[in-house]
Amino acid sequence: MSRDSVMNTYGRFNVTFEKGFGPKIYDVNGKEYIDFVSGVAVNCLGHSHPAIINAINKQSNKLIHISNYYWNTQHTLLAEKLIENCDHSKVFFCNSGTEAVEGCLKTARKYGKLKGNENKNIILYMSDSFHGRSMGALSVTGQPKYQKDFMPLLGGVKEVKFNNIDDLRRNFNENVCGVIIEPIQGESGINSSTKEFLEEARKLCDKYDALLIFDEIQCGMGRLGSLFAYKKFGVIPDVIAIAKALGGGLPIGAFIANERALTLVPGDHGSTFGGNPLAAAVGVAVLKELVDEGVIASIDEKSLYLKEKLTELKNKYRIINEVKGMGLLIGISLNTDPKHFMNLCFEKGLLVVTAGSDVIRLLPPLNVTLREMDEALKILEEVMKEISA
Prior knowledge:
Aspartate Aminotransferase, domain 2; single chain; four-stranded mixed sheet
């Protein structure tokens, strides 16, 4: 089996995975790994969860895809379930987080046209942010390393220093139509927004009649201990981008808007596969497990346990600068090479991923047990001991 036909766009590990169960995943040689990457916060119920398998089997025997010219039962049920659990009113379904961000940006741009004039088209974004790799999402990603080879990008955008209220105020005026913020920046190092910064963004959006957009693609869908991340900060956005864990492994994304932000009408936006019956049925099954079966209710306890154990390791080995994050979106800031640390974990059978310049991300399945966390912590300690020797 040759890999030569696959485009070289990822720095992949030299491993081919074949199957997985719960938080464990197995390569073609049968080696077992503990998966604390979870498809980068996608596999919220781990691998091969019965609820997901049952939803796929049941729905695939009935209806997989129809055009959005017609309604389907599952996308209606999924929309209802999402709206029941937030402060918003309507959902648009797509296939990924990047697509969800694109929809949010279009919503803000049209809002500016409807509420202001041709000049009300500025979208503010945060330094060190990451919103996706399409041209629009990339334009509001505050990391030049991703942007430089694809210039020129979308115009009418402006960067603001993350968590800097003064800079946010300086850049805000009547021509701003939207502000996009990750409540917790995942890719750049598990950097949390302050409540005060989000509150000020809300006030300024209200003052200048702009939309507040939260990108909850990585930090939402239960990862912080509430279905929507904004509830942990007490600030309600106008529009929310979600994806990743919503499908538990199947591609699905969405953006959710309140009444104020309902700018799009037929012909403004679309997605061929968005809200297809199969992906939506899996989304319904995932939300039932997360919300109705109590998975999210257990996150705070698991987070406290994991952070306490990591703090013990910090005090013991001194290679940890800081334990960051919330819920089960945890970052370990290191004073050693994080890629070397990640590779040693991989060799010992633990999958983790880097973030930013010095952080290791821990993204276990949300239904991970304390015993399974202990297994991962044992490997983390072995790596720390080896590096410290």
